[in-house]
Design a protein that fits this description.
It is built from eight helices and eight strands, in the order H-H-E-E-E-E-E-E-E-E-H-H-H-H-H-H. With 198 residues, the protein is α+β, with helices and mostly antiparallel strands. It has two domains: 137 residues, Jelly Rolls (Sandwich), CATH 2.60.120.10; 44 residues, no CATH class. The protein is elongated. The two termini are 28 Å apart.
């Protein structure tokens, strides 16, 4: 819970008294590995702060094939609210890749905060903007880079989560097969580059 309080304080727009009004509207929800926060075709109509764990966000093709576009870990936010700029397309899903604990802002709670806190709408719009900006920075890496470079860049930029992501999801994010990723990891291990991923 303190992580959420710290996140809200860092926004610099809410007083501690206003944050005390926010916390009671939050719902805590644990997800098991494989559970969906938002399955493809369904709008969760909620925002969530990740207390611990990792979510993957991606799309599902017409044939049911899933791809991984990016990951969200501790102290970050995912938003799937109808009527916001982030409203997920019908093919997008949000799924836990390990045991994950979320602090949920349900739509009803957001509405009550809008009435109770004069500046809440601006605060939440800023959270949406931050989430969209973070999403743009995490989206699947450019295929112009070779697979080894994409993998090494991921390790350098996401070292805190790299070792906790299943190889199948990491390979999907990198746009390569799991066999290719295993081969790259073995090659890099010989060069003393840490082969993160599980």
């Amino acid at each position: 819970m303190q992580e959420l309080v710290n996140y809200l304080l860092q926004l610099g727009q809410l007083s501690r008294q206003e944050i005390d009004l926010v916390i009671p509207t939050v719902i805590f929800r644990p997800l098991r590995n494989g559970d969906y926060f938002s399955p493809a075709g369904v709008t969760a109509n909620e925002a969530a702060f990740v207390l611990n764990g990792i979510l993957r966000l991606g799309t599902t093709s017409a044939t049911g094939q899933q791809t991984t576009d990016y990951f969200v870990a501790e102290n970050d936010v995912v938003i799937d609210l109808e009527g916001t700029p982030y409203q997920a397309p019908p093919s997008e899903y949000i799924q836990a890749v390990m045991k994950t604990d979320l602090a949920i802002f349900p739509a009803a709670g957001l509405k009550s905060l809008s009435a109770a806190i004069p500046g809440w709408d601006k605060v939440f719009n800023d959270i949406i903007a931050r989430t969209l900006l973070a999403k743009a920075g995490r989206i699947t890496p450019a295929v112009a880079e070779d697979a080894t470079t994409r993998y090494r860049n991921f390790l350098e930029n996401h070292s805190t989560i790299a070792a906790r992501i299943p190889l199948s999801h990491l390979a999907s994010y990198l746009g390569i097969t799991q066999q290719s990723l295993s081969r790259i990891r073995k090659q890099l291990a010989k060069r003393h580059f840490p082969p993160y991923g599980r």
